[in-house]
Amino acid sequence: MVYLYAACVIVSNYHSKIYMLLTYIHESYIYSVYIDNVVKCMDENGAPVLTVKSSEFINMVKEKFVNASSPILYPFRWATANSIFPLHFGIKCCALEMAAAFASRFDAERFGVVARSSPRQSDLLIINGPVTLKVKDVIIKLHEQMPSPKYVMAMGECAISGGPYFQSYNVINGADKVIPVDIYVPGCPPRPEAMIEGILKLEEKIKKGGNLQ
Hints:
Helices cover 38% and strands 10% of the residues. It is of the alpha/beta class.
């Protein structure tokens, strides 16, 4: 069971790279018999097809694996939801509450939440402070460096709407004006329990297939 869990975690973190690899297939025809156990290639009448064009094959793979209702995705959703890796990133006072959530009293790691120090190893970006014009480019760069599937949490009033700096000359009124946000955790600042509750809500969303594309 442990090996299955580890394999699902690895594949879920790198399935976007599989799409990129398929995109760069240069052969005009490929044989689907080698991947018949994964993808069932059929024509319009339901008869099995041995060869398909590369573009048609890529569309079949995306239809099978990216479709949120596909049962094939369940182990990937299960592994991703139970192994969320947030990025070590703090902007302002909400970062202290985030740090407390990972400390011994609240212990967010018991939910499979392990903070990583590199965006290339993370799948959750927690915006825990006001998004200023100066930090906007940093947030965009970190978000683009994270592998898919990736998620964003707006933690605290500053990240949600600007907070006490609303309509300030250098503060953007909400992180969702810069990057897409999946979960909002209100509070000024929200307690560590609120952040953990937001992560649990994000896990439910992942298991249901939300934002998996």
